[in-house]
């Protein structure tokens, strides 16, 4: 899987997201070379102001500095 190729597909998909970007991910995904990690935030009632929520995510990714460049995050509910 060439992650940059999929990230371009992800960011450029404007319609039919599931059919294009999600299917494209699974078509390109290499389980031998990549792993998937899902995080669940348990305090969703605190996420009332968008910029505060984005700051929390950004801070979390800063602590994971080596993974920051290759992380992609999306509300999983949108993928179901």
TrEMBL record:
Record GO terms (molecular function): glutathione transferase activity; translation elongation factor activity
Pfam families attached to this UniProt entry: EF1G
Name of the protein in its database record: Elongation factor 1-gamma
UniProtKB keywords: Elongation factor, Protein biosynthesis
Alphabetical list of PROSITE patterns matching this protein: EF1G_C (PS50040)
InterPro entries assigned: EF-1-gamma_plant (IPR044628), EF1B_G_C (IPR001662), EF1B_G_C_sf (IPR036433)
Superkingdom per UniProt: Eukaryota
Source organism of this protein record: Rosa chinensis
All copies of domain EF-1-gamma C-terminal, residue ranges: 1-80
């Amino acid at each position: 899987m060439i992650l940059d190729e999929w990230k371009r597909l992800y960011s450029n998909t404007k319609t039919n997201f599931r059919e294009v970007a999600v299917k494209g991910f699974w078509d390109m995904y290499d389980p031998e070379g990549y792993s998937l990690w899902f995080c669940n935030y348990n305090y969703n009632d605190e996420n009332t102001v968008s910029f505060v929520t984005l700051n929390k995510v950004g801070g979390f990714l800063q602590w994971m500095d080596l993974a920051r460049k290759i992380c992609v995050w999306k509300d999983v509910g949108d993928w179901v």
